[in-house]
Amino acid sequence: MLRLVQIEGAWGLPNISPACMKLETWLRMAGVPYTVAPLDMTQAPKGKIPYVIEEDGTLLGDSTFIIEHLKATRGVDPDAGLTAEQRAITVAFRRMLKENFYWVIIHERYKDERNWPPYREVLAERLHFLPEEQRVPAADAYRKLLVDQLQGQGLGRHTPEEVYRIGREDLGAVSDFLGAKAFFLGERPSTVDATVYAYVSSMIDMGLPSPVKDFGRSRENLVRYCQRMRERYFPELAAAARR
């Protein structure tokens, strides 16, 4: 059986990593059997999570490439039947969320001085592959790496207010396109829903304060959409939230 290597969730989210959350959502959407393996960064083929281990020991990294591989090898494709226009829309929104909005999430968790202390605890508690005394220093080192990447990517050069504006624009675009639809492209979920759910919920359902989070939660269709996806693909988390 496929083994999925990822970090754990928090705040009722399936995962604190949007990329991990996206891949696990897709696995459940596509009905691909898997087990979750202990977090081990030493084997990560691209130095990042998530990654998967095939039954023959083959290691595969990058959530998008993993999904493409599984579509080809498992004979499942939630996107079968999409039009060329729908596929183009899918690529555009996936890229926006993964390559732009992702950095807004990073800003709110790692660069915001209010949010880093509580998030450091969340992150350190999940670094089980390290000795306990190394977990907080590792979290601090990871913060420096991501803040440096944020600066290089460009978003880290903006003021917080400018970052909030960018984040609100991205969430607003998702909300406006989603409208009253059950899923992003209509009545049937597709691969783009795994991405939209993972990145939107990672912001609006995280247990940290953020003006971008507040804006997202003000869009009722985004809140309902994330609840709908959680109830459909992570019913155990939805049930826990109701208790």
Chart the SSEs and their pairings.
Layout: E1 2-5, H1 18-30, E2 34-37, E3 51-53, E4 59-61, H2 63-74, H3 84-111, H4 116-124, H5 132-153, H6 160-178, H7 191-204, H8 211-218, H9 220-233, H10 235-242
Helix pairs in contact: 1-2, 1-7, 3-5, 3-6, 3-7, 4-5, 6-8, 7-9, 9-10
What would you say this structure looks like, in words?
InterPro entries: FAX/IsoI-like, Glutathione-S-Trfase_C_sf, Glutathione_S-Trfase, Metaxin_GST, Mito_Protein_Transport_Metaxin, Thioredoxin-like_fold, Thioredoxin-like_sf. This is Glutathione S-transferase family protein. It comes from Hyalangium rubrum. This protein is mostly helical. It has two domains: about 70 residues, 3-Layer(aba) Sandwich (Glutaredoxin); about 160 residues, Up-down Bundle (Glutathione S-transferase Yfyf (Class Pi), Chain A, domain 2), CATH 1.20.1050.10. Helix content is about 60%, strand content about 5%. The chain contains ten helices and four strands. Strands 2-1-3-4 form a four-stranded mixed β-sheet, covered by helices on one side. A hairpin with a 5-residue loop joins strand 3 and strand 4. Helix 1 runs parallel beside helix 2, helix 3 packs antiparallel against helix 6 and helix 6 runs parallel beside helix 8. The longest helix has 28 residues. The model has no long low-confidence stretch (mean pLDDT about 95).
